[in-house]
Amino acid sequence: MSKKVLYELEFPVRCSPGILYEFLSTPAGLQEWFADKVDFRDNVFSFSWNGTEEEAEVLEQEEDEFIRLHWTHAPKDEYFEFRIQISEVTNETILVVKDFAEKKEIKDQSQLWEYQVKDLFHRIGN
């Protein structure tokens, strides 16, 4: 099995960092766009999609800046992260998604994230 590599996607978003962070870090916010059902207990999110359930542990987070999660079934050094940055040039809010995938799967995984983020933007009126 080939080793997964870290890749990064950037999405400009018309939304304040505070509002965006709520959609990225709370069960209610994540349930709006990321999964059908989301629960949070003991620093672990439980995500459900069509009856399939996955768990992700919160590794690190800073309010209005980022949240880093680790799928409990994945290797310890892999994670996915939602980071909020402000462009120094345009003062625009940017959502940065970091994730791991095998090199040949990065394009497909990127398209999946783009679909998910498009749903997020629709929910926040972007």
Key features?
single chain, 126 residues, alpha+beta, Alpha-D-Glucose-1,6-Bisphosphate, Chain A, domain 4, seven-stranded antiparallel beta sheet, 3 helices, globular
CATH class: Alpha Beta
Strand order in the largest sheet: 1-7-6-5-4-3-2
| N-to-C CA distance | 39 Å
CATH superfamily: START domain
Counted up, domains total: 1
CATH topology: Alpha-D-Glucose-1,6-Bisphosphate, Chain A, domain 4
Largest sheet: 7 strands, antiparallel
Spans with pLDDT under 50 lasting ≥5 residues?
none
CATH architectural type:
2-Layer Sandwich
Helix content: 25-40%
Q: What is the total tally of β strands?
A: 7
Coarse structural class: alpha+beta
Number of helices: 3
- H/E topology pattern: EHHEEEEEEH
Percent of residues in beta strands: 35-45%
Query: What gyration radius follows from the Cα positions, in whole Å?
Result: 14 Å
Q: Which geometry do the CA atoms define?
A: globular
Let me know the average pLDDT.
95
Secondary structure blueprint with pairings:
Blueprint: E1 5-13, H1 17-25, H2 27-33, E2 37-41, E3 44-49, E4 52-62, E5 66-71, E6 80-86, E7 93-101, H3 106-123
Antiparallel strand pairs: 1-7, 2-3, 3-4, 4-5, 5-6, 6-7
Helix pairs in contact: 1-2
